[in-house]
Design brief:
With about 350 residues, the protein is of the alpha+beta class. It is about 40% helix and about 20% strand.
Length: about 350
């Protein structure tokens, strides 16, 4: 017993220098485990006399209780130190600026389409949508486009290798929506038809797929004056603070007569850029949709969305809209709170 007491005192005295929970557990096992020193002495009690047994048992229990209390206290100290170290390692400096929250943005083309729909919507135009895959009649014939017109050639139009159910090409303009809408209803008509169109062309100012907005107004007493007033109103609303000058030039389109191209200038008339085509709907087009050209007349116009976006937002290369560069989206994208209100509720 004396050796055990001396050994225990020595062990307790060096517990203060132990800073490892694993070593502390090893000491606990060496004394209190199944083969521990105190445990072994407890088993030897059966060989002692009753008087001696009581005395030794008392001493052993005192040593056991002392060791347990010291081990438990040291165990708590070491665990607290571990927690402190962990808190220091994982400390967060709350004075640092927060991380930047990167939010998605609306693609500029989608935003410009929404702007156009909003402006024309406030002018009383409805919105019509149509299929991207069309047939020759709705894409060409009904629009008074001659059989030998260059637009019908493979170098300008995407034709399907295996036409089905009359569909033979990707529409080259959204004027096809104009034909289908007027064929199934009666005047007056006042709507725009925004959407994707497809042509075999690709360079700095052209892409195989782009966006277009067609507009139609068919009613009594409509003339070129109404057309000019409508487009001037739209362009001034669209470009807003940018000072622009507008001019109409005589032109030729198979589906309008008379026809004109609209140019704008942002430098006082020193440089002009064509942005859309327009004119009075050709009598043959009216006949092709079942209308009497003597009783009805109106105007139509068509514009490229990308070109308008490039002018308004100072973008030089059309391909910027489609190359998927995140820097472009960050620079030219539009926050969601700037979505024009009128676009909500429209059925696409």
């Amino acid at each position: 017993m004396d050796n055990l007491k001396s050994q225990l005192e020595s062990t307790i005295s060096r517990l203060e220098s132990i800073d490892d929970l694993k070593k502390l557990q090893e000491i606990r096992v060496s004394y209190l485990g199944k083969s521990g020193f105190i445990t072994q002495e407890m088993r030897n009690l059966k060989d002692l006399s009753q008087e001696k047994k009581q005395q030794v048992a008392k001493e052993l229990n005192e040593m056991k209780n002392l060791l347990v209390s010291v081990l438990d206290a040291r165990d708590v100290e070491l665990q607290n130190k571990e927690i402190e170290k962990k808190l220091q390692r994982e400390a967060i400096d709350i004075t640092l600026p927060s991380r930047e929250i990167k939010r998605g943005k609306i693609h500029l083309i989608s935003h410009v389409l929404n702007e156009i729909v909003e402006i024309f919507g406030n002018m009383g135009f409805g919105v019509e949508y149509g299929a991207h895959v069309e047939d020759d009649f709705h894409n060409f014939d009904a629009l008074n486009i001659d059989e030998n017109h260059p637009a019908r050639q493979n170098h300008d139009t995407f034709y399907m290798k295996h036409p089905s159910e009359g569909a033979s090409l990707l529409r080259t303009h959204t004027s096809t929506v104009q034909i289908r809408t007027m064929s199934k209803s009666k005047p007056p008509f006042k709507f725009i038809s925004p959407g994707r169109v497809y042509r075999c062309d690709s360079d700095q100012t052209h892409t195989p797929m782009f966006h277009q907005v067609e507009g139609v107004l068919i009613d009594d007493g409509i003339d070129m004056g109404h057309l000019k007033g409508c487009l001037k109103e739209f362009l001034h609303a669209f470009f807003g603070d940018k000072k622009i000058e507008i001019r109409f030039r005589p032109h030729f389109f198979p589906f309008t007569e008379p026809s004109a191209e609209v140019d704008i200038s942002m430098d006082g008339g020193n440089k002009w850029l064509e942005i859309l085509g327009c004119g009075m709907v050709h009598p043959n087009v009216l006949k092709n949709v079942g209308l009497d050209s003597n009783a009805h007349q109106g105007f139509a116009f068509g514009m490229g969305v990308e070109r308008l976006a490039m002018l308004k937002y100072d973008i030089e290369d059309l391909r910027t809209f489609f190359d998927g560069d995140k820097r472009c989206s960050a620079k030219h994208g539009v926050d969601f709170h700037r979505i024009p209100k009128l676009i909500w509720g429209l059925n696409k």
